[in-house]
Each structure stands twice: as C-alpha cells, then as structure tokens.
C-alpha cells in the first residue's frame, strides 16, 4: 500500500486536519522529536487505497545565517556582510531535530501533501519541508506527480475537504520572495547593527540598550514615532478666540450655537464681531434643514483593521493580538487571520457562517432577525487575492476562549454580523441663526433605524437633546454672547493604531510582519508603551533617528523600504528576477553603509549631547569604535575631534531597477 505524508505548520493544526479527514478514526503517536505527533489512518488518494500520515513542523524548519566565522563581531568587518560573507540555511531550532524527524517520517513515502499556512511564509516553509523529505521519498515520478499543495482558509470540515479535493502545487516565486526578504534583512540589518553597536557601546555608559539595532523595516517604524515626538516638542501654542452664543425660546433649555466664522486669531477683531452681534438681543431663525443621512456598515475585516481595533479599543498590543488570533484559527473558531482582503468572494457561504451564531445568547436576537429579513450583501472591498476576510467559523463562549481570546473573538463576530446588516440611518436637523450681522448655527441627530449599530453599539448615534421645533422667521432670545479665549494644543504621541495605519499606507512590512516590527522597537528600548497604547520614543530612539536624518535620511524614511517591498512582491508574482533584485538592493545599501561609516562623527555629536561618556560611569577605559583598541576616554575624544564632518559628501540615493526583468 502506498503512503501519503501530509505536513501542517503547527502540531495543533495537524491534529485538527487529521480528525476532519479521517472522520475521527485516526490513531496518533509522538514523533521522535517529542514536539510533533503523527496521525495515521487509511483512505484513498488518486483513486487508490493508501495509508495517510499527517504530521507537522513548528513554523520555519530552517533559518538563514552567515557561515560560522562571519558571526565573529570582532574579526569581521561589517562591510563584508553585504557580499563577501556566504550565508547558509541552518535548522531554526536545532533542539527539535526537525529535519531528521521529517526524514524519518518521509522515508519511503510515495506522495507529499503540504498543508502549510497559505501565505508567502507558508510557501517558503513548503520548500523547506520538501528539501528535507524529497531525498528519502520513493522515486515513483516527477515532483508534479508526487508533491501537492492544499489551499484552505479555515479549519472547518467543508474547507478542509474542499482543499483535499482541489490540490495544487507549491508556489516557488512566493517562496523566493521570502528568501529575498530574509537575505536582505540579514545582511543589511547585521552590517548596520554590528557597526553602530560596536562604535557606541564602548563610548557611553548609559545607553540603556545592549544592542543598538538597525532594521530596514524596524528603523522607518521608529521614524514615524520620532517624527510625531518632534512635532510635539517643536509645537508652539497659538491663542485664538471664538464667540460663544446661547439663545432660548420660551421655557426651553438654552441652545449653545456655533459661530459660522469658527475662530479668529486677533482679540480685537473678535471683540469687534461680538460688538456687532450685541447690537441685537434677538436671534432670528434664517433656515431649518432636515436631511436623512446614513452611517455605513463596516467593510469586511482584514488583519490590519483587526490589529488597529484590538489596540485602540481592546487595549491589546499587535503581537499579542496576532498570537491570540492564530490560536483562535488553529482551534477552528475563526478563518485565517493573515489577510489583506476586505471583499468576500461571490461563492462564500455568508449565510452558513451567520447560522453558526443563531444560538449564541450575546447576539442571537440580531442574527435571527437578519436571517428572517434576509442578509445584506457586504460592501464591496478590495480583493488582494490571498484569503477571505477574517470571519467567525463557529460559535463560542467566554469560558472556552479565555478573557483576551473571547474579547477578540467577540469583536470579530460582531464585526462580521455588522457587515451583513443594514446601514445606520438618522435625521440631521440644522438651524441657522442670525444675531445682528453675525451668523450662527446648531445641529442635532435623531435616530431613524439603528441598523448595524445594534450589534456594534459603540458606533451608535449618541442620544442628544431634541432640537426645538421652529421655522424660518422665528425669533429666539439671546441669553449671552461672549468672547472666549482658547489655545491650540499639540498633537499627541502616536498610538499603535495610528502607527499601524502609517505602516500600511507607506508599505512598511506586511500584515504578518507589522506586529513584529512594532514589538521590536519596544523590546530594543527605542519606544515605551504609555497609557492608551501610545508610543513614546526614548532618548536613545530619538537620538538614533535624528542621527540617521543627519547622515542619510533615506535610512529612516519609508520610501526606500516601500520600494524594496514592491520589488519583493514582483518576485512573488514572477515579474522580477530574484538574483537581480537581491543584488541591486544590496548594492544600494552597501553604498549607504560606507557613507554612514564615514559620517558617523556627525551622529556621535548627537550622542555626546544625550549620553554620558563611559568615564563618567566609572569605567576608565573605552573601546575605539574603529580600531577596537581600549584607550582612555580623553584619547577617544581627541581621535573623534580630528574628523571634519564637512569633508563628507552627500549620501548615495537609490534608484530601483525596472519592474520588467
């Protein structure tokens, strides 16, 4: 009997998929590495009886690194990391013995079905698995006849059986785009990180960081936070004046009106307008308008929006949110949580997903009403060609998901129900007044139908005092008119939600990597997370970004990384050559690195202002950033002062290769 080896990305996924495909009749045993189990059952494949073996890896099997001698910081010039230093794939977690485990289970098998997560990283892991398994498989045919790829978006019976019945092949181009990103991030990140860590660590005793890291995505992410910090620091409040008017009619409560000129920045001008308005003790109604308006239901949920809401409304950091979302997915509660798409395909069973929620007491009433009245087709969103939007796949309760798991699941489910609901409708009433020569107005909203806000009440129309019944020509009595002094205020620190929006807009990272980059700048002590999930740069974070701006702004601006991401996407689409993109990008950053090394004294000047020399921290000797010899701090200062920053030329700019390669 022939053997089919099937490999998923995580042990829990392997177990769930095996249970579905075997209809609960599989037997399970631990693999040799202790971390992965093997689930076996009999069935048919390609019209013949076979033995299925379902197992998994634990994420990436391999990781990219430099060969041994190039990992010695003291003996290797960081400039060599751009081209001279060879790289190799090493086991990502040697303790797991993943390659040996895969070879033991794959030995003598006839077919491989790859159930890795369906994104670029998953495609890359497909080929890592194949590199381990193919040498020990039975050589019964070509790769096209023996290697298959399952495509799925949720761990449900329907989706898994459909994937098994429509097997394709792994995507080499998408895997190559991940290889390119890994190599670029390794070479560029390590070169800059090693150089600046060695240069500054020996000089200053209170840097608050053992590693001064640079990352092609990490650094622009930090740049957004520091840019907002700089705006706050440089903000100069400006005084302005508004006219506040209160009017009433009969025994009704006074109405506070908005001045049509909004505000003025000259007190005397403001006082002049007050005097003109005070010529009358009456407020005359010039017009009353009523307009029916609607508040649109949300578009279907993608990863970036989920991360934004989790941070701003649930108080959960992006990395933590993704960990919880992945757990909900592997347990079958939601569909795949990494997607850029906000549009459901025409054949998506929206009604079926909604019916799963009919008995959940939290929203059963709204769901039953929707099913009886007929669901509303979701708004048209964007189709990125990856996975459907994030959707609840089965009902759940707080007890089975835990606190944060339930809060995220509840939001995802309410959002999904809202996309199938009607828009919220309300009536907006606006009354325009004239007092003397000045115009004022007030407006209010009255709910007509709550629509989707029944299930997302936090987005509902707030209850307001009813607007007075009046018509053109009516007269109100002026209660008071006064000039009020106010001041413009500075912007606040960036929230995680705002940072995620900026990263998405500028193409920094992917839906999968955005949480990692934000987590990195927190872990490296470049920013701290304050109340309200606000990101406040540390002294070190601010100095680094200012230093990059001073030496070569492109190291911190999002433009160059955004261009790299576009090139990586072209590799994934088969429209650009892997080797050419890699070489061209490394050439650009190599030139930038050499310029950065030559310009480091100007960055050092900023460090001197913000941090204490190592001598002040009680350490008598310091290591020179260039020659690495230990010397007294005063000697380092002398060496540094001999470099004239004005002799350094301008930084190399980048030009990216044509997309037609």
Give the number of DSSP strands: 18
Rg on CA atoms, Å: 31 Å
Largest sheet data? 6 strands, mixed
Helix-residue proportion: 25-40%
Task: Report a brief summary of the structure.
This protein is α+β, with helices and mostly antiparallel strands.
Topology, pairings included?
Elements: E1 2-8, H1 11-21, E2 27-30, E3 37-45, E4 48-56, E5 62-66, E6 87-91, H2 98-106, E7 111-115, H3 120-133, H4 143-146, E8 147-149, H5 157-165, H6 172-201, H7 218-234, E9 239-248, E10 255-259, H8 267-277, E11 282-295, H9 303-312, H10 318-330, H11 350-355, H12 364-373, H13 398-401, H14 403-419, E12 424-435, E13 438-449, E14 475-487, H15 496-506, H16 514-523, E15 527-530, E16 534-537, H17 539-552, H18 559-572, H19 578-610, E17 621-623, E18 630-632, H20 633-641
Parallel strand pairs: 1-4, 1-7, 7-8
Antiparallel strand pairs: 2-3, 3-4, 5-6, 9-10, 9-14, 10-13, 11-12, 11-14, 12-13, 15-16, 17-18
Region (Disordered): 376-400
GO biological process, one term: DNA repair
EC number: 5.6.2.1
Description:
With 661 residues, the protein is of the alpha+beta class. The chain has 4 domains: 135 residues, Rossmann fold (3-Layer(aba) Sandwich); 215 residues, Topoisomerase I, domain 2 (Orthogonal Bundle), CATH 1.10.460; 123 residues, Topoisomerase I, domain 3 (Distorted Sandwich), CATH 2.70.20.10; 117 residues, Topoisomerase I, domain 4 (Orthogonal Bundle), CATH 1.10.290.10. It contains 20 helices and 18 strands. The strands form 5 sheets. Strands 2-3-4-1-7-8 form a 6-stranded mixed sheet. A 6-stranded antiparallel barrel has the order 9-10-13-12-11-14. The chain has a two-stranded antiparallel sheet with strand order 5-6. A hairpin with a 2-residue loop joins strand 3 and strand 4. Helix 7 packs across helix 17, helix 10 crosses helix 14 and helix 10 crosses helix 16. The longest helix has 33 residues. The chain starts with a strand and ends in a 20-residue tail after the last helix. The relative contact order is 0.12. InterPro entries: Topo_IA (IPR000380), Topo_IA_2 (IPR003601), Topo_IA_AS (IPR023406), Topo_IA_cen (IPR013497), Topo_IA_cen_sub1 (IPR013824), Topo_IA_cen_sub2 (IPR013825), Topo_IA_cen_sub3 (IPR013826), Topo_IA_core_domain (IPR023405). GO terms for molecular function: DNA binding; DNA topoisomerase type I (single strand cut, ATP-independent) activity. It is an enzyme of class 5 (isomerase).
């Amino acid at each position: 009997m022939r053997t089919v080896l099937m490999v998923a990305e995580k042990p829990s996924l392997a177990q769930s998929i095996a249970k579905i495909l075997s209809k609960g009749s599989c037997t399970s045993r631990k693999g040799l590495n202790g971390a992965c189990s093997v689930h076996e059952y009999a069935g048919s494949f390609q019209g013949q009886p076979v033995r299925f073996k379902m197992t998994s890896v634990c994420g990436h099997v391999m990781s990219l690194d430099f060969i041994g001698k190039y990992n010695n910081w003291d003996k290797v010039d960081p400039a060599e990391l751009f081209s001279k230093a060879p790289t190799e794939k090493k086991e990502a977690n040697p303790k797991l013995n993943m390659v040996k485990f895969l070879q033991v289970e794959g030995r003598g098998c006839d077919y491989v079905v790859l159930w890795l997560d369906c994104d670029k990283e998953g495609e890359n892991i497909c080929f890592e698995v194949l590199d381990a398994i193919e040498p020990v498989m039975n050589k019964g045919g070509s790769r096209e006849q023996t290697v298959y790829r399952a495509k799925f978006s949720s761990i449900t019976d329907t989706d898994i059986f459909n994937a098994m019945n429509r097997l394709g092949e792994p995507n080499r181009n998408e895997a190559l785009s991940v290889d390119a990103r890994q190599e670029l991030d390794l070479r560029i990140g390590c070169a800059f990180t090693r150089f600046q860590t060695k240069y500054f660590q020996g000089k200053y005793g209170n840097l608050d960081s053992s590693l001064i890291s640079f990352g092609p995505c990490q650094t622009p992410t930090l740049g957004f936070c520091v840019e907002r910090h700089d705006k706050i620091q440089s903000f100069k409040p400006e005084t302005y004046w508004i006219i506040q008017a209160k009017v009433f009619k009969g025994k009704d409560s006074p109405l506070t009106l908005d001045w049509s000129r909004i505000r003025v920045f000259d007190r005397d001008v403001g006082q002049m307008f007050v005097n003109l308005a005070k010529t009358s003790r009456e407020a005359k109604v010039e017009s009353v308008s009523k307009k029916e308006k609607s508040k649109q239901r949300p578009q279907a949920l993608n990863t970036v929006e989920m991360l934004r809401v989790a941070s701003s409304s649930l108080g959960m950091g992006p990395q933590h949110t993704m960990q919880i979302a992945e757990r909900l997915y592997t347990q079958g509660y939601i569909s795949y949580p990494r997607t850029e798409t906000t549009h459901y395909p025409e054949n998506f069973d929206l009604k079926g997903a909604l019916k799963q929620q009919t008995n959940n007491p939290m929203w059963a009433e709204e769901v039953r009403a929707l099913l009886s009245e007929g669901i509303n087709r979701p708004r048209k969103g964007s189709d990125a060609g990856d996975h459907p939007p994030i959707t609840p796949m089965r009902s759940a309760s707080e007890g089975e998901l835990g606190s944060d798991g339930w809060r995220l699941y509840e939001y995802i489910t309410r959002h999904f129900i809202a996309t199938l609901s009607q828009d919220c409708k309300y009536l907006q009433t606006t009354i325009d007044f004239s007092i003397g020569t000045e115009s004022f107005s007030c407006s209010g909203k009255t709910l007509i139908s709550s629509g989707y806000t029944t299930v997302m009440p936090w987005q509902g129309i707030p209850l307001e005092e009813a607007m007075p019944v009046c018509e053109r020509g009516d007269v109100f009595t002026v209660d008071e008119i006064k000039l009020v002094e106010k001041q413009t205020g500075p912007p606040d620190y960036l929230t995680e939600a705002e940072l995620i929006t900026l990263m998405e807009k500028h193409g920094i990272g992917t839906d999968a990597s955005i949480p990692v980059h934000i987590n990195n700048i927190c872990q490296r002590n470049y920013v701290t997370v304050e109340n309200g999930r606000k990101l406040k740069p540390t002294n070190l974070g601010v100095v680094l970004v200012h230093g990059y701006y001073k030496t070569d702004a492109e190291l911190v601006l999002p433009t160059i990384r955004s261009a790299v991401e576009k090139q990586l996407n072209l590799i994934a689409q088969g429209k650009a050559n892997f080797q050419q993109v890699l070489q061209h990008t490394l050439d650009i950053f190599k030139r930038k690195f050499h310029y950065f090394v030559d310009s480091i004294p100007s960055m050092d000047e900023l460090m001197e202002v913000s941090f204490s020399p190592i001598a002040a921290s009680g350490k008598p000797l310091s290591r020179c950033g260039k020659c690495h010899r230990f010397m007294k701090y005063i000697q380092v200062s002398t060496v540094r002062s001999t470099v004239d920053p004005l002799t350094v030329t301008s930084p190399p700019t980048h030009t990216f290769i044509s997309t037609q390669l």
